[in-house]
């Protein structure tokens, strides 16, 4: 498919970014609305976590099938159909009268999201020339940065002033608009007769689900200690078996070939470490402000808006900076700024002047925006068109896993900090959060080690000129 005009290509990129924002927003928007939802369902608030987990797991499990579905039935049909499923599932979430009906609707919503965003990203990147990839990725990156920050605050405001049902009802007009644009902008490519790889789907789906579940269970002190290593080890074993299987199966559900491309491999390995660390911030910081420092929920949520402000201010400059300095210098230099941001958060206290806290959050927002965009762009810089389907699928799975792992690893770091500081029996205090944030700084530092091995001209084909 070749779009006839450049403005149509930009419109398509904005459409996919909008659906990506809807998908990411729905992963976090209900977190502050859980008490109100639990009251209506007649259950304890902590039991609503299954609604969050069901959505994230469904996203991760079904993403590997998205590439096959797009090739078999056409990108336009799958993308538009995924928007319909996501929108209908949103209505079912709003109409749910019990925990289990809500969980079922969230699972269906996750299925729609799993087909919606990877297929949209595939259409955009496959039809974008190398010279336009930097701009396209810059547009596609902002939802992953802004939605996790805006979600909790927006969900709390809606559930307080309207009702939690409107969190999902607002998706209806947005979904209808996206559907109309999708039918106009997206076209089907040549269909493929490749059979569905059921074995690969089962191995990858169970492997991803158990891997994420094992990390989540590790942070829970109300479950047996033997459970999390068993679940995690089973997930790793299934993913290893899946990797072996797809390498020797010509018609496998997906191919690991893009991992042979150094720039994509760095995004997959070092980028995953970075994204996991960054995604822990919207979880750890609000809790530290409320539990550790005694801030109110509204005050804590409002502070996170400065992260969003930093993202927005930095975004217009990211492309120029990458063109000016090149990927390796940006990823190493800005990566150190990300590490410094986490380290400075570990030094905050309840008596830290508010303007200083705001300035730090704004700085963190700017540095995370730069690093996200650079990692996401270099990942596709050297991927051949024939490998774009597998690359977009693998990237989508990793990004979704990193979002879930950020929360789970953040919770695990907090639990570990409580044990190390002797606070395991009670609530976490400010010192526990500081140590957990210091651990996240160490995780972000590991990502820089991976990036430093890139050649100086890595990803040069998509940049305007050689780095200075």
Structure commentary:
With 468 residues, this protein is mainly α. The protein folds into three domains: 1-195, MFS general substrate transporter like domains (Growth Hormone, Chain: A); 197-252; 257-468, Growth Hormone, Chain: A (Up-down Bundle), CATH 1.20.1250. The chain contains 17 helices and no strands. It has helices spanning 6-28, 34-41, 49-62, 64-73, 75-95, 99-126, 133-161, 165-169, 171-185, 198-218, 227-247, 262-292, 297-325, 327-345, 354-379, 388-420, 430-451. α1 (6-28) packs antiparallel against α9, α12 (262-292) runs antiparallel to α13 (297-325) and α13 crosses α15 (354-379). The chain is globular. It starts with 5 loop residues before the first helix and ends in a 17-residue tail after the last helix.
User: Which residue ranges are poorly predicted, with pLDDT under 50 across at least 5 consecutive positions?
Assistant: 1-6
For the record, give the distance between the C-alpha atoms at the N and C termini, rounded to a whole number: 36 Å
Radius of gyration: 21 Å
Number of H- or I-type helical stretches? 17
Topology, number of strands: 0
Please state the structural category. mainly alpha
Count of spatially separate domains: 3
Give the biggest sheet.
none
**What do the pLDDT scores average to?**
80
The first-level CATH class of the largest domain is given as: Mainly Alpha
User: Quick one: CATH superfamily of the largest domain?
Assistant: MFS general substrate transporter like domains
Shape: globular
CATH fold title of the largest domain: Growth Hormone, Chain: A
Order of helices and strands: HHHHHHHHHHHHHHHHH
């Amino acid at each position: 498919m070749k779009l006839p005009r450049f403005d149509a290509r930009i419109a398509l990129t904005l459409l996919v970014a909008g659906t990506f924002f809807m998908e990411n927003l729905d992963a976090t928007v209900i977190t502050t609305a859980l008490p109100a939802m639990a009251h209506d369902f007649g259950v304890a608030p902590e039991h609503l976590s299954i609604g969050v987990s069901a959505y994230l797991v469904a996203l991760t499990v079904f993403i590997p099938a998205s590439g096959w579905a797009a090739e078999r039935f056409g990108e336009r049909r799958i993308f538009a159909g995924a928007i319909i499923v996501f929108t209908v599932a949103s209505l079912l979430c709003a109409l749910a009268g019990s925990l289990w009906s809500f969980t079922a609707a969230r699972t269906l919503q996750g299925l729609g999201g799993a087909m919606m965003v990877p297929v949209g990203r595939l259409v955009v990147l496959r039809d974008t020339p190398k010279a336009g990839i930097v701009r396209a990725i810059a547009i596609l990156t902002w939802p992953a940065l802004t939605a996790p920050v805006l979600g909790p605050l927006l969900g709390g405001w809606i559930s307080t002033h309207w009702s939690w049902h409107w969190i999902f009802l607002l998706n209806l007009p947005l979904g209808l608009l996206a559907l109309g644009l999708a039918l106009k902008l997206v076209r089907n490519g040549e269909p493929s007769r490749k059979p569905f790889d059921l074995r690969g789907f089962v191995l990858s789906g169970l492997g991803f689900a158990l891997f994420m579940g094992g990390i989540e269970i590790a942070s829970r002190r109300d479950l047996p200690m033997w459970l999390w290593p068993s679940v995690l080890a089973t997930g790793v074993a299934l993913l290893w078996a899946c990797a072996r299987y797809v390498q020797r199966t010509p018609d496998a559900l997906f191919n690991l070939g893009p991992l042979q491309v150094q720039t994509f491999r760095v995004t997959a390995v070092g980028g995953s470490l970075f994204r996991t660390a960054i995604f822990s911030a919207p979880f750890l910081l609000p809790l530290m402000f409320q539990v550790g420092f005694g801030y109110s929920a509204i005050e804590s949520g409002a502070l996170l808006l400065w992260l969003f402000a930093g993202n927005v201010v930095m975004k217009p400059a990211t492309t120029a900076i990458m063109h000016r300095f090149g990927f390796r210098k940006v990823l190493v230099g800005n990566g150190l700024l990300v590490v410094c941001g986490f380290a400075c958060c570990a030094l905050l206290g309840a008596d830290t002047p508010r303007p200083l806290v705001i300035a730090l959050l704004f700085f963190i927002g700017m540095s995370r925006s730069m690093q996200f965009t650079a990692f996401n762009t270099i990942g596709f810089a050297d991927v051949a068109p024939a490998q774009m389907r597998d690359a977009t699928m693998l990237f989508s799975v990793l990004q979704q896993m990193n979002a879930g792992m950020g929360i789970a690893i953040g919770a695990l770091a907090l639990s570990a900090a409580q044990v190390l500081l002797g606070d395991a029996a009670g609530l976490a205090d400010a010192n526990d959060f500081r140590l957990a944030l210091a651990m996240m700084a160490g995780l972000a530092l590991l990502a820089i080690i991976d990036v430093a091995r890139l050649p100086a001209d890595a990803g040069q084909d998509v940049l305007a000129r050689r780095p200075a």
